[in-house]
Write a structure and sequence with these properties.
By secondary structure, the protein is mainly β. It is 0% helix and 51% strand. It has a single domain (7-106), classed as Lipocalin (Beta Barrel), CATH 2.40.128.
């Protein structure tokens, strides 16, 4: 979507204050390999901001949900080079959704999140 390599949005959700938030992964930006990627679009589909999360192992977001009060939950998987596994990963962005307002939590069972 943005860079020269494979960048994929896996899920999209409408925000109560207008616009959309997308969850996916990017190879064009961030650390080597695949990194988790959140994008905020306005109601016309123009990019307002994007934010990359992750480290040296492959990370990605596959699902997104918006709670009635505007809190965004994005779920996926976070890779661990040391453990050689992936772990479920849930990102929480408080309303209003801006790249600076985020809380992250990683869990330790080797099953990815497929729905938020």
């Amino acid at each position: 979507m943005v860079g020269p390599d494979v960048d994929v949005a896996h899920d999209i959700a409408a925000l109560p204050d207008g616009g959309y938030v997308l969850a996916g992964h990017t190879v064009s930006q961030g650390a080597r390999g695949k990194d988790a990627w959140l994008l905020r679009l306005d109601d016309q589909g123009h990019l307002l901001w994007d934010k990359i999360f992750g480290g040296p192992a492959d990370d990605g977001l596959g699902c997104i949900a918006v709670l009635p009060e505007g809190v965004v939950l994005a779920g996926g998987e976070k890779g661990s080079k040391a453990a050689g596994q992936t772990y479920p990963w849930l990102l929480k962005l408080d309303a209003p959704v801006t790249p600076g307002r985020r809380r992250m939590s990683a869990h330790t069972t080797p099953q990815p999140l497929h729905a938020a």
